Structure formats: C-alpha cells, structure tokens
Amino acid sequence: MNECGGKLGSKIESREAVIGIIGLGYVGLPLALRFLEERFPVIGFDIDSRKADCLLGGKSYIEHIDISPLADAIAKRRFDATTDFSRIAEADAIILCVPTPLNKNREPDLSYVMNSVESVLPYLRAGQLISLESTTYPGTTSEELLPRIEETGLKVGQDVFLVYSPEREDPANPNFTTRTIPKVCGGVTDACNELGKLLYEQVIDQVVPVSSTSAAEMVKILENTYRAVNIALVNELKVVANRMDLDIFEIIRAAATKPFGYTAFYPGPGLGGHCIPIDPFYLTWKAREYGINTRFIELAGEVNTSMPDYVISKVMDALNTHGKSLQGSRVLVLGLSYKKNVDDMRESPSVVLIEKLLEKGAEIAYSDPHVPTIPTMRKHQLDFSSIEIDRDVVSQYDCVLISTDHDRFDWDMIRESAALIVDPRGVYQADGVKIWRA
C-alpha cells in the first residue's frame, strides 16, 4: 500500500481517524454511535439543521435509538453534528448514508447521493476514504462516484480510497445490532478494499469482503429482492387461503416447524420500509440496460402494491355484512409505521390505506403509540394526529382496521370493544362475523 493508504490505515488502527457520516437517519445515527463506542472522533453531517440541533441538545428524533452516549462524547469534543460541509476536510473517512428513493416513474432517484457527493468534492483531500452505504443498483459507485471524484485530480486507489458497503439495519430488532450484523464491503481497487475492511473491522464483528463495489451493491439488491419476492408469494397465498376459508397465519406457523428448506415470511396490508418496496426496482431498471426483463421481480412488485386495495375490499365486504357502506362509515386505523414497535414511517402501507379510505368517503382516525402525528412525506400530505383509545373510543367506530400490530396495543380490550375488526396481520382468529381476515 502506498504512503497515503499507509498513513490512513495507521490512523484507523490507532482510533485517531475522524469519521464523517453524511445522513443522520436510521442508518447514519446508529453507525455514528457505534464508532463513538470504539472511541473514534465523529462528525455528523445532515442538511436538516433540526437533526443536528436535537443531537447536540441531547434529544433523539428516532424513538428506538438511545443517544445518551452522545453527552459524554460532546463534552469531550469527540462528537459534533453540523450542516457545514466544509468540515468534510477534517474527516479521514467519509460515509454516505442518505436515501435512495424512486421517482414518480419508479426509476432510481440518486439525487440525495449525487447532492451529497457534490457537497463533498470541494473539500476532498489526499488520504481520505469514501464509503457509500445507500442501497443502489450495481455500478453506481464505479459509474457515478468514481469519475466525479477523479475529476478533482485525486486518483482513487492512490490518493483517496472508495468503497461500497451496504447498510443492513433492521430498526428495533432486539436480536441484531449495528455491531453484530456482518458488513459486506467491496472496493474499487485492492487498496480501497483493504482500507474499507480495516475501517469496518474496528466497529463490526464480521466484515465480508467481496471482489468489487458492483458485487457489494448486488448483494444488497439480492437480499431485499429475495424478501420482496417471498413476501409477494405469501401475500398471493393469503388471497387464495382466504377464499378457501383457511387461516394463512396458522398455515405459515405450521410450515415453519420444518427445520430445513423453508423460511417463514408473513403477509400484511402492503409492503413498507425504505428498502424492500424500492430496491428490486433499482435492479429491474439496471437490468434493462443489459436487455433483460426481470418479469418475476416485477410481478412480485405488482402483487405487493395491490395489497392495500385487497385490504380495502375486505373492509367493504365486512361493513356490508353489517348493513353499512364504506362511504360515511367511521374507520379506526391501528398502527401507522411500516412495522411493529417502531416509529419508522418510510413507505408505510398504512398511509396508502388511509388515503384510499378517504377517497372512498370513509371517516378516518388513527391510533399509534409510536407516531403521534403524521410527518411530512415526499409523496403524501395528510394532517392527522394519533388518538388515545380505550373501550369507549373503540366502540364508537364502525370498523377497526389493524394495519400495524404494535405490542403496546391492548388487543384483548380491542377485541372486546370493537363492533367489527379487519385484520391483515393475523392478530386474531377470524370468525367471519366480527373479525375478518384481510
């Protein structure tokens, strides 16, 4: 390894390397805390000044993330949060953890990545490592980041070092942490790969090197496409089972007792989170460049995106059996986040359900102990706040729709108090009268 790489490696090993993390959300913030645990100095960058102010003021804007360790790090000047990207020059390792959504045509939107890169370029210097963690299609790092970096006159692999290492966060999962989830890493050159592996080995128990940045990008796309396709399968089987008057959740739980050759996936009211509903479309878009139509993946996407409409059809059927139409009925939606026990609203199917119910004339309220108000979102504009529920409140609604099955809900009280329940999450045993599968 050359002199630049050797000096950077020594700084990493001695914990003197300053870590700059761009994007202080569900990925960047846990990663910043992990580096601080290992005594690295960290600078957090975000375009939202409110996030920096919250962190420096000792407040967390993500429910399940404990930021109490920041107080000591701030006092000892080992952590700072800022919107001033000129401070990139202070960082030895720059890690990009920004969103990669789809645009209105369901094509990759790399604007957050590219804007971050453009903010970094004026302050790049020799001896820095750049790591992209945002999920994206194979080729992004080598085709988009590499040429832009080398336009500054710095040579990747000699002066600066470029890797791709996909995030693998699972918010609020008690069984896995940033430290214990293995970290895939691929570099543009061997020197890049070596330094990327060295960096992440300081904070992650297992680092998995791969041959290139494109291979690492494909790893993340494979992981989330696998999940999306299997969720689509059980969503489709749910529709079949419901028509046969079978409980798909009972069937999946029984199938999961097989100790080999089967992995349990569960259906729901739609697909949520920042990764699974989006990432497969990054691959289908890139595959078209090579003349390949990924029909299987696209079909899975169609199945998953049709689930909110299926759930609403079940709400309409259930109300009809009680002599009511959806228009004018009062519907209480339980749970707004995309998965249970978190406040993460990214791509939540609950929002789609609320919008579609409103379009059909229903009167809507929601309750979610993790989401007190609906936040500002790129694709949705809803002005609702969560309501507190008890027996009297629940009994006032024509239908209760379970969108997210948080543990903090009193499910016994809800079952006893509700006039009608539509349950896409398998909380209850359906009876076709008061409790409906969906």
Layout of helices and strands, plus pairs?
Blueprint: H1 3-13, E1 19-22, H2 28-37, E2 42-45, H3 49-56, H4 69-75, E3 79-82, E4 93-96, H5 111-120, E5 129-132, H6 140-150, E6 161-164, E7 183-187, H7 190-201, E8 207-210, H8 213-243, H9 248-255, H10 279-289, H11 295-305, H12 307-321, E9 330-334, H13 349-359, E10 363-367, H14 391-395, E11 399-402, H15 411-417, E12 421-423, E13 435-437
Parallel strand pairs: 1-2, 1-4, 2-3, 4-5, 5-6, 7-8, 9-10, 9-11, 11-12, 12-13
Antiparallel strand pairs: 6-7
Helix pairs in contact: 1-7, 8-10, 8-11, 12-13
Describe the 3D structure.
This protein has helices at 3-13, 28-37, 49-56, 69-75, 111-120, 140-150, 190-201, 213-243, 248-255, 279-289, 295-305, 307-321, 349-359, 391-395, 411-417, and strands at residues 19-22, 42-45, 79-82, 93-96, 129-132, 161-164, 183-187, 207-210, 330-334, 363-367, 399-402, 421-423, 435-437. The protein is of the alpha/beta class and 438 residues long. It has three domains: 3-211, 3-Layer(aba) Sandwich (Rossmann fold); 232-305, N-(1-d-carboxylethyl)-l-norvaline Dehydrogenase, domain 2, CATH 1.10.1040; 306-438, NAD(P)-binding Rossmann-like Domain (Rossmann fold), CATH 3.40.50. The strands form two sheets. Strands 3-2-1-4-5-6-7-8 form an eight-stranded mixed sheet, with helices on both faces. Strands 10-9-11-12-13 form a five-stranded parallel sheet, covered by helices on one side. The mean pLDDT is 94.
